[in-house]
Amino acid sequence: MAPVVELRDVDLVYVTGREAVLALEGMNLAVAPGEFISLVGPSGCGKTTLLSLIAGLIPPSSGEVLLHGRPVVGPSPEVGYMLQQDYLFPWRSILGNAQLGLELTGRLNNETMDFVLELLDGMGLADTAKLHPNQLSGGMRQRVALVRTLATNPDLLLLDEPFSALDYQTKLQLEDLVVDTLKQRKKTGVLVTHDLSEAIAVSDRVIVLAAKPGRIKGIFDIPDNIARTQPFFARKETGFNELFHEIWRELEDSDGKEG
Ligand code: ADP
Ligand code: MG
């Protein structure tokens, strides 16, 4: 099947004042429909930059970024982006926050509103629709952010450390919820995380990046028994620990200090 997103020989140079930073070099990557991949690597290796390129927020300095085979020229409703911070508007109700993307893209109608309510319900948030963000826990707020991201029905979701500010138990619950939701709705996902066990537990593939310049260091296919198991239980599957240590070793010498 044709990839949902593809990067071909992508370089990204940030120019600030008199300095130029080569944030990504020679990036080649294709993500298949319905696939869930994770990006791991040291701080500054270009993970967020990679998501920004896919989201159409910045253009590549050279090479191509393709979405469904077409060059990315700017943000598209086909792509949803969820961040570590939930960025909910405090003065808006939960429902008001959840439907924001639809409002901004002029697609709020009875049908899409019903879809938002269905998503809220599916995430155990039905009773919170009239509340405001400050009345919700961190985990609930991230669920609202997830609803808002899914509300516009993108087929590709970009997730930049969406669980890292949560306590451990909430994080495990949300991992399961996100993976279930994406698989059920046949979405494609790209997750950035600094938690290697999370990356292995939720993904079909883990991409290890190295820094200075940011580039792909290794690609690990996650065996079926782990990939097909809910993240919470995946951590107890045969081969999980061995794989963790194998990828860990790859990560250890990817901090860019060697060059
Ligand atoms: P990561 O998300 O993996 O921590 P980033 O993609 O944020 O890495 O950053 C990659 C590199 O690009 C880093 O060296 C960072 O300092 C630099 N960088 C990121 N954003 C900008 C920017 N807007 N302007 C200049 N340099 C940037
Ligand atoms: Mg980042």
From TrEMBL:
<keyword id="KW-0547">Nucleotide-binding</keyword>
<protein>
    <submittedName>
        <fullName>ABC transporter ATP-binding protein</fullName>
    </submittedName>
</protein>
<keyword id="KW-0067">ATP-binding</keyword>
<dbReference type="InterPro" id="IPR017871">
    <property type="entry name" value="ABC_transporter-like_CS"/>
</dbReference>
<dbReference type="Pfam" id="PF00005">
    <property type="entry name" value="ABC_tran"/>
</dbReference>
<keyword id="KW-0813">Transport</keyword>
<dbReference type="InterPro" id="IPR050166">
    <property type="entry name" value="ABC_transporter_ATP-bind"/>
</dbReference>
<dbReference type="GO" id="GO:0005524">
    <property type="term" value="F:ATP binding"/>
</dbReference>
<dbReference type="InterPro" id="IPR003439">
    <property type="entry name" value="ABC_transporter-like_ATP-bd"/>
</dbReference>
<dbReference type="InterPro" id="IPR003593">
    <property type="entry name" value="AAA+_ATPase"/>
</dbReference>
<dbReference type="GO" id="GO:0016887">
    <property type="term" value="F:ATP hydrolysis activity"/>
</dbReference>
<feature type="domain" description="ABC transporter">
    <location>
        <begin position="7"/>
        <end position="236"/>
    </location>
</feature>
<dbReference type="InterPro" id="IPR027417">
    <property type="entry name" value="P-loop_NTPase"/>
</dbReference>
